[in-house]
Each structure stands twice: as C-alpha cells, then as structure tokens.
Write a sequence for this structure.
C-alpha cells in the first residue's frame, strides 16, 4: 500500500525545486486566481522555517515586515500555485526554526549574510513555463478582443452621432 502512495505522491512532485534553507531571503512567485483572471504575486521575505524537505508536503514559512506589521506566509513548494522561488540572499544561521525573529525589530532582526552559488536559482520547469506563456497569450488575445469590441462600439456611436447631426442639419435647412 505504501508503494502506491509513494508512487502517487512522486507523480505530483515538481521535477526540481530550489534548495531553500532557513535564513534565506527569498522571492516567492505565487499564482492568484480572482474570478476568471489569474495573475502572479510576489512575496519577498526571510525563510524562518522549512519542513519535510524531501516529501511532497515540503513547506517553507516566509516572514516580512510590511508597514511595521509582521506578515508570515507558508508555501508548499510542490504546489502548482507556486510559480517559482528565488533565493536572493543566504543568511548565516545555526537553527532551522527562526521564530525568535518575531520578537525582534530593526537591526537586531537582521541576519549576517554569507556567500552562496547563485546558480541554485536556475531551476526550470518546462510545463510551468509553457503554462505561463499560454496564460500570457490568453490575456493578450482577450485584451485585443476587448480593444476591437471597444473600437467597434466607438465607430457605431460616431456613425449615430453623424446621422443625428445630418438629420439636425436637414431639419435646420
């Protein structure tokens, strides 16, 4: 039975995921669906927790300060809604759970940076890139159709205005 579960969970995993560690400053690109529109939203912050790195349920918790208020979001790395994760800086930390950062503010909340190989961000998922390209094409086609519809409506209004002006000129004469 466990072989079947493992096989199904492996099929759901992404081919490659960026090696994210606690203390990293990351940029997470997430798909947001509002009605029938989809867009990509970016969230940048410090990874304060990583869970179950090798499983389908691998998760990171990212924290940032916005307008003086701490905001934390958890992301499942293998979720189809997570477009990509970029590591911007790597911090020098000695723990996996950096929950002590919640109590700190200002300079005491900073982590000391360390050098890392930036090529870890070169993870390409061809299916996700194709999906993103398809979404761009769809939105472009929808925008062009809407512009054409608007131009047709404007032309119709101009024709009516010209007709009314001609009728008005005929009544005046």
């Amino acid at each position: 039975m466990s072989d079947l579960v493992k096989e199904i969970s492996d099929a759901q995993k992404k081919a490659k995921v960026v090696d994210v560690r606690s203390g990293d400053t990351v940029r997470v690109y997430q798909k947001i669906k509002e009605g029938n529109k989809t867009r990509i939203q970016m969230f940048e912050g410090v990874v304060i927790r990583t869970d179950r790195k090798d499983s389908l349920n691998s998760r990171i918790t990212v924290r940032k300060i916005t307008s003086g208020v701490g905001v934390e979001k958890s992301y499942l790395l293998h979720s189809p809604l997570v477009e990509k994760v970029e590591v911007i800086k790597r911090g020098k930390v000695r723990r996996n759970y950096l929950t002590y950062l919640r109590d700190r503010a200002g300079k005491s909340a900073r982590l000391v940076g360390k050098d890392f190989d930036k090529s870890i961000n070169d993870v390409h998922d061809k299916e996700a890139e194709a999906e993103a390209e398809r979404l761009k094409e769809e939105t472009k086609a929808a925008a062009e159709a809407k512009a054409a519809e608007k131009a047709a409506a404007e032309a119709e209004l101009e024709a009516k205005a010209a007709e009314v002006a001609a009728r008005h000129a005929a009544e005046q004469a």
